Amino acid sequence: MNRRIRLVMLLLLMGCQVVANPVRITDLDRTYDVFGASQMLGVKAGTVSIDDLLRNPATYQFVNTEKQRIKPYNQQLGYWFRFELVNQQDREVFLQFIYAGTERIVVYETAGNRVLALHRLGSLQPEPDQPFRKSVQFCPIAAKNGQTSTFYVYMEGIYTSALPIFALSVDKLLERQHRSDLFYGTYYGFILIIIVYSLVMFIRLGEWGNLRYAVWVLFIGLQMALFRGHTSEFFWPANPGIEAYATALAAITGFLHVLFTLSFLRLRIQAPTFYKIGIGIMILYAIGFVVNVANVSLNHQLGEQIDFVPLLALFEGLVSIAAGVVTLRKGFRPALFYIAGNLFFYVGILVFLLYTFGRLPYSFWTFESIHLGVGVEILFFAVALTYKVNLIDKQRKDAEQEKIRLLQENERLVTEQNTMLEQKVQQRTEELQEAKQRSEELLLNILPSEVVEELKQTGQSKPRRFERVTVLFTDIKNFTQMGEQLSPEDLVNEIDYYYRSFDAILSRFRIEKIKTIGDAYLCAGGLPVAYPDNPVEVVKAAIEMRDFMLHNQQDRVARGFRHFEFRIGIHTGPVVAGIVGVRKFAYDIWGDTVNTAARMEQHGEVGKINISDTTYQLVKEHFQCNYRGKIAVKNKGDVDMYFAEERVEKAVF
């Protein structure tokens, strides 16, 4: 009974070592898919050895590869693959590992419980005696003439879910290798030509966009070479560990792509919002670079989840395409090629992602989709840059031709009609100068000179905020009752007399008359050119205005005429000043400072200059001021007010 039990257990144990679906090599002209016929075991990196698998096979449960998905970018996991090969030919057969980015590949060829051959491959541990290139890994198979071998392949540092493994003859291997050499040789040659062409264009035209483009193409070419392992093969074969900084290189490449985009699409002018977003993305790329370098230096102790550069690259792509669409709609036609290049690149990424996650089968088009997308992107960017340079050159030449044409036309007209038109031209010129002078004088009478100059240069005047402006309000007491006693003509003449006098007083100061509203007169100091002593100047002008009104009042009373009585209010604070609308320009000011100045006037007294506490603090060293106490003001509560009197003469020692 015990012997039967042991026999059953032995059969079960043997059954556990049988690999399903052995690959039989019968035709050397075929390429055999080994990955699809393999079984997979996911383990914690470095915890399971080949001895463990051979001595205790029942302990480890391999499953078919299509039933378990690889988790790429997880440095903590390792994967064992098991498959069986039956070589029925008498010639040597090779295993080919297509994806070169895997950091560690160890291939064990076994028979029974013995290891027949051991091969160490991978991007970080190249095989010293490998007869073929390192960028695509190979190892020979010992089995021949109907021999059967069970292979155990251990991998770490896997960066994709698709790991094509093939068995093929040396002739088939060399044929595929030659095709790969032809493709990559052409690809990198194309990149080199683009770089040289861009540098020549930069030297010839001095256009910095060509230099930025050449540097970006260099780094995107390095990234594509690193992606296939060509960098470790040709640039730093003695230091394969540099490959671990792939994300840092991707961050540099993305940074340069954004820099090229900002310059090429002229986003600072055409789309300022996208320009600010681009600057933010560049900062994130710089952070991604630092994080990747630190993480690799610490042996990935920070974890893989901190690698946000791939997601940032996808986001940047969407932003770049949107920015291209915006500039294209604004008439920048080279943006069309820029958009097309980005679309091809991201289509290539999409195809490759579908391939790596098993949604698309392995083929030249799926495996090289990113390289093809980048190649088309580089080509379209080169066309877009050339188009932009030609467009700028054409615009420059057209402008020069138009200038020459106009000069020739003017010369012809002058030659034909010089005698007849000279006097008329001179007369017309004088008229235009006079009209221009009158227009400018009229405009200067309406608007400040600084605003007029801004309108002449840009066609518009933007409102500006001034932090310290002193606003003066004055109006006539009992204006309505006075108006009922005078005819409209007399009323207007009286007001005009006073306000002309006020204008004359302001002309001696740096104070800007803002407007008159009925009987109210509004002016302000400290704009449109800010100066710190504007409170003193405004109070000075207010005293002269008050003195004028009092003197005029005495004169009219002496002659038995009616007279107006004025109140003056002053407040200092921030305002927004500018012009609004497109017709009947008027320079105006807005803000609570204006309202407070009006309240100062309303709560003042006839023949007095009522100033706020804010203004008082700025002028108290220059004028005698009498404190009125706190006075209730609508919507402002109790407000400190002062009557400003004569100037304070400072003692001279």
List the helices and strands and how they pair.
Blueprint: H1 2-17, E1 23-25, E2 32-33, E3 39-44, H2 50-55, E4 63-64, E5 77-87, E6 93-97, E7 104-111, E8 114-121, E9 137-141, E10 147-156, E11 165-169, H3 170-205, H4 208-227, H5 230-234, H6 246-264, H7 267-270, H8 272-297, H9 309-329, H10 335-356, H11 364-367, H12 369-446, H13 449-458, E12 464-476, H14 479-485, H15 488-506, E13 511-517, E14 520-525, H16 534-559, E15 566-579, E16 587-590, H17 592-602, E17 609-612, H18 613-619, E18 623-633, E19 637-647
Parallel strand pairs: 1-5, 15-17
Antiparallel strand pairs: 2-11, 3-4, 3-5, 5-10, 6-9, 6-11, 7-8, 7-10, 12-14, 12-15, 13-14, 15-16, 17-19, 18-19
Helix pairs in contact: 3-4, 3-12, 4-6, 4-12, 6-8, 6-9, 8-9, 9-10, 10-12, 15-16
Can you describe what's shown?
- This protein is an alpha+beta fold and 653 residues long.
- It is 52% helix and 21% strand.
- The chain has helices at 2-17, 50-55, 170-205, 208-227, 230-234, 246-264, 267-270, 272-297, 309-329, 335-356, 364-367, 369-446, 449-458, 479-485, 488-506, 534-559, 592-602, 613-619; strands at 23-25, 32-33, 39-44, 63-64, 77-87, 93-97, 104-111, 114-121, 137-141, 147-156, 165-169, 464-476, 511-517, 520-525, 566-579, 587-590, 609-612, 623-633, 637-647.
- Helix 3 packs parallel to helix 12 (369-446) and helix 10 (335-356) runs antiparallel to helix 12.
- The longest helix is centred in the middle third of the chain and has 78 residues, at 369-446.
- The protein starts with a helix and ends in a 6-residue tail after the last strand.
- The model is unreliable at 1-18 (pLDDT under 50).
